[in-house]
Prior knowledge:
elongated; about 85% helix; mainly alpha
Amino acid sequence: MKNGSVSSILILSELLILLLLWLNNEFLASLVSAIIVVVSLAIWIVAVISEKIERSKVSRSFFKTILMIALIPVVLAIFFFYINGGIEWK
Length: 90
């Protein structure tokens, strides 16, 4: 498998899992989404800083994939917040 297909599968898997979580349990979905965003952005920041210090052979698709992983939970949270008219944690 090529890197593009692996990252596409990873992103689609994350989207599907988070979508199912948002449909079943908003509180857990928001908690997992926040953790994913914080961790993936931290990884991205460290990777960018280390890349600026010393160039590596890491492809640009890695950086794009990490940003997409961080962006998907934010987009889903905004979508469900808008559709549900707010957050109703039970």
